[in-house]
DNA sequence: TGATGAACTTAACGACCGTTCAGCACTTGC
DNA sequence: GCAAGTGCTGAACGGTCGTTAAGTTCATCA
């Protein structure tokens, strides 16, 4: 009653030229995406290397040809997320540098889109960061802090009655709101969900 | 580098009459609270029975005198939370049955207070529910669903342009906002944090 | 053709985990 | 003073996990 082996091993030869212009993702990225999905639904410690391998159509030890170990897989999944969030946030702010209200709206737009596009990786980021060893964990926390500060700066300009600590509370509250998307599936289509989350977040932050 | 044993075993004899009117908590509850804290910070699978025992001042196997097993500890921690949330929500709604706006405000008040008072158990509830076996997990999900429906009903009365699915998206978004409190510590005192979260949640929900 | 190297397999290791069991210490009620 | 019972210890079990190692297959290319 452990893991129903539902993943079928792919044809094993897609190595050469892809059937069309579609760029072949590297095997490493492919495995990483599978691992992220498993981590997100069963928890880091709830998934074994054999589980990940089985889901990718290989045995557990085969994974060591692509990653140094299990912790390295988690780090490889989490670090790019923090980097993309920070880079995206900085870009949106730079694009509307003179108008803090527009900057906030752009931040919300960006974050909602990101969360809706990457629910598994967002859930991982929220729940499993502490399973990393010190070094990559510190790196990610630093990136997170910089991202939060972008929001805090925008908020303190826009709402002068807030001090930095209070703006930080609101920023985290906004993340909680926007990151709630992994918890709910269909029923409402993606565009409408994005609209609801955008409007709710902006209302929550503009007091 | 695993677990610094900082918990000191208590005097072991507080069994008789407490020194004053303070009601002695049962050993079971005491252990449960310790376990919840560990689960919340290191994850269910990241904590061993020996870890929990050590933090409570006993060995691992001693825990089997109070709980049937590790999963039973998690269930014992999570089920009362769902029950309290549902009961509290129903009570607040019944108390303001004629005024949906007041009902929503009461729900927000209640949930924010609960989240601020029990951050560890809220985090557990969010992250580790899937580690339970089917039976208790279904029970908890049923309680959760009923609690969410209280919010959904209040929201659909208050905002007639929303269908049930959209109201559910907003309800989960509000939970995400209010449950963000475990992620941030001091810097802003508790009363102010409650005020910020209350105002933000009401703004987010009232469109 | 034959060497190269990537991707994978099977087998095995040491460590740790949840759980069980037999027995000991100590308090309580008779 | 004695029996009952609670709470605990220490040792041990079967199982699982992350990881290592050695060997196999096979496409690629000189």
From TrEMBL, chains A, B:
Residues 9-21 have a biased composition (Low complexity). One of its GO terms (molecular function) is transcription cis-regulatory region binding. Keywords: DNA-binding, Transcription, Transcription regulation. Residues 48-67 bind DNA. The keyword Metal-binding does not apply. GO terms for biological process: negative regulation of DNA-templated transcription. Residues 1-26 are annotated as: Disordered. The keyword Transcription regulation applies. Residues 25-85 form the HTH tetR-type domain. PANTHER family: HTH-TYPE TRANSCRIPTIONAL REGULATOR RUTR, TRANSCRIPTIONAL REPRESSOR MCE3R. This is Transcriptional regulator, TetR family protein.
């Amino acid at each position: 009653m452990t893991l129903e082996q539902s993943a079928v091993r792919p044809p094993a030869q897609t190595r050469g030229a892809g059937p069309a212009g579609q760029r072949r993702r590297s095997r490493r990225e492919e495995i990483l995406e599978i691992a992220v999905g498993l981590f997100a639904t069963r928890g880091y410690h709830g998934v074994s290397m054999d589980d990940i391998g089985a889901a990718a159509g290989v045995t557990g030890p085969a994974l060591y040809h692509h990653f140094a170990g299990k912790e390295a897989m988690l780090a490889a999944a989490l670090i790019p997320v923090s980097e993309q969030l920070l880079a995206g946030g900085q870009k949106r702010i730079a694009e509307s540098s003179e108008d803090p209200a527009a900057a906030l709206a752009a931040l919300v737009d960006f974050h909602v889109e990101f969360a809706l596009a990457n629910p598994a990786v967002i859930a991982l980021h929220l729940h499993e960061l502490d399973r990393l060893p010190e070094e990559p964990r510190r790196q990610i926390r630093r990136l997170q802090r910089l991202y939060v500060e972008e929001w805090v700066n925008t908020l303190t300009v826009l709402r002068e009655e807030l001090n930095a600590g209070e703006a930080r509370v609101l920023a985290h509250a906004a993340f909680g709101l926007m990151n709630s998307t992994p918890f709910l599936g269909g029923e409402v289509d993606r565009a409408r969900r994005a609209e609801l989350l955008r409007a709710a977040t902006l209302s929550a932050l503009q007091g």
